[in-house]
Amino acid sequence: MTDPEIIEAVRSSNQLLQSRAVDALLKQIKPALVHYVKQNSGTHEEGVMMANETIVLLWEALGKGSYRLQVGVPLSTWCNSVGRHLWLKELRRRKGKVSDNREGGLGNEPTDPVTPEDIITTVEEQKLVSADMQRAWRAFKKLSPECQKLFQADLDDRPEQEIMHELAMTNLGSVKVKRHRCKAKWIELYKQEALDPNDGGTE
């Protein structure tokens, strides 16, 4: 697949087409990223993880419009640069969160106690009590069966490989993209629920 074809497919809602595009891109970027990570205090598995995370960041960049193909700059070059940056960031994080916090990084950001992104944990702990939680739960029930199945698998702490096969995907990168896509939809539905004037905090 050419770079424009990969980009179009990653943007697509066609799961099979998207999975094939991710496969094609992973074949291009994974060897170099695995080599880079192994040369910098990492393992093969961590290199693969960086490649998968890079695919997710590409999908997010495409969604935000912050990525554009440049003449003479292959998509794989951009992805490898992002993957190396991710690994260096991970190495800095491992050296201690204190230095990150001094710069206003990890650990200092204000957090919303109830968001769609962390509801997976709160649902598991049976804390559906606040109005926000109830709105988030109503939004969850409006998700597609596939998204609900994916989040339920996360709740059950099932292995990524098992989730990949259940969703008929061919690579872990596609699972990660699907998860982010589902979370984005969940947040959208959550915001719509939050605008409900009849929401008094009870069902």
Verbal overview:
- 68% of the residues lie in helices and 0% in strands.
- It has 203 residues and is mainly α.
- It folds into two domains: 3-102; 116-194, no CATH class.
Uncertain ranges? 98-114, 121-129, 199-203
What would you report as the Rg, rounded to the nearest angstrom? 19 Å
| Secondary structure: helix percent | 55-70%
Structural class: mainly alpha
* Overall mean confidence score, pLDDT: 75
Task: Give the amount of beta strand, in percent.
Answer: under 5%
- Biggest β-sheet strands, sense, barrel: none
Q: Count up the domains.
A: 2
Distance between the termini: 49 Å
What order do the helices and strands follow?
HHHHHHHHHH
What is the count of helical runs? 10
Task: Let me know the number of strands.
Answer: 0
Shape: globular
Summary of the model, kept short:
The protein is mainly α and 203 residues long. It has ten helices and no strands. The chain folds into two domains: 100 residues; 79 residues, no CATH class.
